[in-house]
Amino acid sequence: MTKGIMETKINDNIHTEEFFVNLGPQHPSTHGVLYLEAKLDGEIIVDCATHIGYLHRSMEKIAENRTYTQFIPFTDRLDYVASMNNNLAYVMAVEKLMKTEITERAKYIRVIIAELNRVASHLVGIGTFVQDLGAFATPLFYAFREREKIVEIFDEVCGNRLTYNYMRAGGVQFDLPAGIDAKIKEFVGYMRTRTDELEGLFTKNVIFLARTKGIGVLPKDMAINYSVTGPNLRGSGVKWDLRKDEPYLVYDKFNFDVPTGDNGDAWDRYKVRIEEIRQSLRIIEQAIGGIPEGDPTVKVGRILRPEAGEAYFRAENPRGELGFYIVSDGSPYPCRLKIRGPSFSNLAVLTPLVKGVKVADLICILGSLDIVMGEIDR
Amino acid sequence: MISVLTFIIMIIVGATVLGFIAVSAMFLIWWERKVSAHIQTRYGPMRVGWHGVLQSVADVVKLLLKEDIMPAGVDKWIWWFAPFFAVVPSVMVFVCVPFGNIFGITLIPADLNIGILYILAITSVCILGIFMAGWGSNNKYSLLGAMRSAAQMISYEIPLILSIITVVMFAGSLSMQKIVEAQSKLWFIFQPNLAIAFLIYLISALAETNRVPFDIPEAESELVAGFHTEYSGMKFAMFFLGEYTNLFIVSAIAATLFLGGWQGPFLPPVVWFLIKTYGIITLMMWFRWTFARVRVDQLMGFSWKVLTPISFANLAVAGWALLK
Questions:
Q1: Distance from CA of B105 to the nearest CA of A (A)
Q2: Which of A182, A210, A243, B59 falls 20 to 30 Å from B311 in CA-CA distance?
Q3: Cβ–Cβ < 8 Å for A320, A343
Q4: Do B294 and A131 touch (CB under 8 A)?
Q5: Alpha-carbon distance A85 to A107, whole Å?
Q6: For residue A138, which residues of chain B lie inside 8 Å, CB to CB?
Q7: B231-246: per-residue pLDDT in tens?
């Protein structure tokens, strides 16, 4: 089509320019201290740079000056929404380094606790995501009401509510308290109905669909190239879950499905999280039914001195694969410890996804990626 | 010439209306906090007075005592006058709101024969305040919020006015009192054409008051606080007052145009009017705390591609029905 006279005139006479908007580091929906430097053309995002490092605590260097056990509480502060899973991945790496075999009961306890924390983490993820879409606070309060029950269970198990410091190389800090299995069973039933309720609020809501369907489409190959993991990868239709594909602990004993999305848009990522809550509940139910009796810990000595060598262990965390690479020189302190945080890779995909979308969609995409800054900056 | 008596009556009426607006806005803020709290499984304000009824009074005192911060680089005049432009029109609209009658005295400050037209004209000015605030603040978030509000204004006003025209056609008058009287037999909402008009009006009114799902100019999770990001103290309170007064106005208009205004059995008219108005307000609050927010282009698209054609079709059908 040829240019109309009016169009030419408008383009020639009106001078428009792109401008920068700094989203963060203090902003209501950047999930912590993330700083997005967005170049806008009106409402359209031309370019977006992510600046990280506001929460850097040099965890990896600290690890070199702590004994293996002393570093466990630091892992709590990585992905602080899923502390138990961080604990788990770290102690599993240490155990792999020391070639320690833990008891069957400890494995079951770890699975139950890790899956409970996955549910809690996904609740926070979904709640904040929907809040970012403008459903102010209500879904978040609902999600936190459910999460509270999990936190109470953890409180009974280990005495803490956010940073648990519960897993130990060789087992867990304490055995499960008496009567907790009844509580967990009750929670599973309760959470099933609440998941339906949460879904009823949003999954088929017209506004929610309009805001999330087809927004932030992450193609399969792009997700793999950026090494996106967790629900974000599965939302793009890649059936990759370490609990299935590289089973650790006793995950191979349980029946559960790996939910995947079709289009890789924000809605799929949301839906995968919802389904994962259901699958986690299934795992918890099976694990609590089959948990063996006995002592959950094996003796590993007060100060761990793994032989010189190296080990890498990765676990399926709520946000993706969390990996710990530990090099030991035989001393009580790790020679080098490298953390592979899933949110870091998941955030990297933001810049290509948001080019050409509107400001509102930037917030939607960022929320759907469900990042935690503690893990990105370490 | 205005006699002294008329003048005194005018002063009394004005003072009453202003007093009502202030009390109503404070009540609405408390009510909103309570409604939202109970939707979100919380209690809301509980400390100041019975179930926190005096919380708004405490907040007003706090806002009055706050330092009035003027950021560097603001466009001084525009920045200063913006809050007034947000409040004054919504107060002016009360001239034509029929509250009913008590002891034979009609409670309407002035029953203009162009009542509803006057209301529409005046409420459009509110947007100016928002735009001035966004432009004058020298803040990109504010400017984005203001730009969005300008876009929103264009897209929602047309279906809003068209839905009101449908009512005017049925009532045969622009006067608010006449419109109420025209509903003495049957409320307008029970007529098919006007029921559609009511839905269109309700959706547009949500947009007019910048409430979820159309709270795009404020968009907390995107634009921090939108156009009033840079305002504090009493200026911020003015925007708040304007917002809640507007909320009352659009609900009062909805009650008057579609729900029979102050008419109803047994209870006094004023009570009926307030029940209907606050009922609609509560409905809007329910929306606010349940729905997500639409995107600015979706709001525009919905308004131009869906609401406006439906309004026109509705208007045409209504005209045909009246002529028949």
A1: 43
A2: A210
A3: yes
A4: no
A5: 13
A6: 36, 39-40, 289-290
A7: 878 888 888 888 888 8
